[in-house]
């Protein structure tokens, strides 16, 4: 059912030249442009596809309160859908772009923060091409957080508006389950995760969310990542960027199920290449593969640190 408060909303892809400009604004790699523009023409010629696009944009932007993990508004496509299935979400985000920009302006979000946040769509297309050699989104639901105003890029790190869950909330000092928090994410293709870059991002985040979301006073940041697996300290020097990043957090628990493919995908760009053919040039590459070679497993660590008001 459509939101009764927005019966006036017309959702449509812009024309070819305007769409090309929007895709450039979203950081879409140049090698993906031709196929996306061709698919957009195919989509616009189908009344059923246009209707599905409108429904998806409304689901993305309005038919949800903003709480994480309550659906994305995006349709699921079978593998047989091919390129259109891999790329349909890109058109949803392109059609949602002007509405997201309005929301950002209403919040007073600076234009540079808005732009650098939304170009993560292009980064995700680049990840797909690096891994599979084709145009598409590996995790189509991920950019929904950016377009809903849940996640912002502030320097080297991304910060997502969340609420503490039961286990993390019980472990955090000075907060509890359901309290606002910022979930820290580490995007790809942005260079080393240096302590200075992280310090600057965290300082920006503290000021940014206090200014633009004052109704959500945040006192804690959390992270759920393989980078917080304490086993990394066995292999990496104390002065390494990853160890320095890990030491920011009070790591309260480790997931019980192995996540061996996660570090392999992030460090090497995918999991399709046999491990014995992967390079071992850097300390992180040697750590990830050497631990697996020895019969070990990697796990997600869950940690937090305070964000004083």
Characteristics:
single chain, 309 residues, alpha+beta, 6-stranded mixed sheet, 45% helix, globular
Task: Describe what this molecule looks like in 3D.
This protein has 309 residues and is an alpha+beta fold. It is built from twelve helices and six strands. Strands 1-2-3-4-6-5 form a six-stranded mixed sheet. Helix 9 (195-212) links the parallel strand 3 and strand 4 (220-225). Helix 2 (30-44) crosses helix 4 (82-107), helix 3 packs parallel to helix 4 and helix 11 (261-268) runs antiparallel to helix 12 (283-293). The protein is globular, with a radius of gyration of 20 Å. The protein starts with 15 loop residues before the first helix and ends with a strand. The model is unreliable at 1-8 and 65-69 (pLDDT under 50).
Structure in a nutshell:
This protein has twelve helices and six strands. The protein is an alpha+beta fold. Helix 1 (16-25) packs across helix 2, helix 3 (47-61) packs parallel to helix 4 (82-107) and helix 11 runs antiparallel to helix 12.
Helix content: 40-55%
Main β sheet profile:
6 strands, mixed
Distance between the termini: 41 Å
Average the pLDDT over all residues and give the rounded result: 92
Number of helices, counting only DSSP H or I runs of 4 residues or more: 12
Record field, number of beta strands = 6
Helix/strand/pairing category: alpha+beta
Strand order across the largest sheet: 1-2-3-4-6-5
Residue windows where pLDDT falls under 50 for at least 5 positions? 1-8, 65-69
Indicate the proportion of strand residues.
5-15%
Radius of gyration over C-alpha positions, nearest whole angstrom? 20 Å
Overall 3D form: globular
